[in-house]
Design goal:
This protein is mainly alpha-helical. The chain contains 5 helices and 5 strands, in the order αβαααββαββ.
């Protein structure tokens, strides 16, 4: 499979303050390299939504190529060497992450948008590698169908539906002059 498993922007996003004033495209790439390196090291990052969203595609591509071709492919090793600034993470990529994601058919990362904090109205996010050792961000939803107020509301809804059906049947019978199947 050669397609990325995450949505990809067609145009590069303008990242503000990447590496200072006037850093240009080189500064943007350097910022993404630092973010991908930190993601591989810590397996969960919190930061600007724009930077993490841009870095997610590069991390996905790196893991996908490493899983498809392995450490014996020269181009994949060079790509890992370029994107990972700490060279010990190249070994982590091939020895830890690739075996973890060998049978994955979905994306290797999850991204969650954090709520805005007033007065800073910046979009923040969390980017994480799936299967990381940290506690999950999204807990499984609690089944609230058996809570007392939900049971009472369901019973009231069912009762109202039965009353509406009974009154509509009696209205039909009165209008046609019949009572539940017998002619008058």
């Amino acid at each position: 499979m050669n397609r990325l498993r995450v949505p990809l922007n067609r145009r590069p996003r303008k990242l503000r303050g990447t590496l200072g004033l006037g850093s240009g495209p080189e500064g943007r790439i350097e910022r993404i390299r630092m973010t991908v390196t930190q993601l591989m090291r810590h397996e969960r990052l919190e930061g600007s939504f724009a930077v993490l969203d841009e870095s997610r595609a590069y991390a996905e591509l790196l893991i996908q190529q490493a899983a498809m071709h392995g450490p014996k492919n020269k181009e994949v090793v060079e790509m890992a060497d370029f994107w990972l600034l700490d060279k010990d993470l190249v070994h982590k990529l091939f020895n830890t992450l690739v075996p973890r994601y060998k049978n994955y058919s979905t994306s290797y990362t999850d991204q969650y948008q954090l709520p805005n904090v007033y007065p800073e109205n910046r979009m923040q996010a969390v980017l994480e590698l799936k299967g990381n050792p940290w506690p999950p961000i999204n807990e499984h939803a609690v089944d609230t169908s058996k809570w007392i107020h939900n049971v009472l509301l369901t019973a009231a809804r069912k009762s109202m539906t039965n009353k509406t059906t009974d009154t509509s049947l009696s209205d039909i019978a009165l209008n046609t002059g019949q009572t539940h199947g017998t002619a008058v």
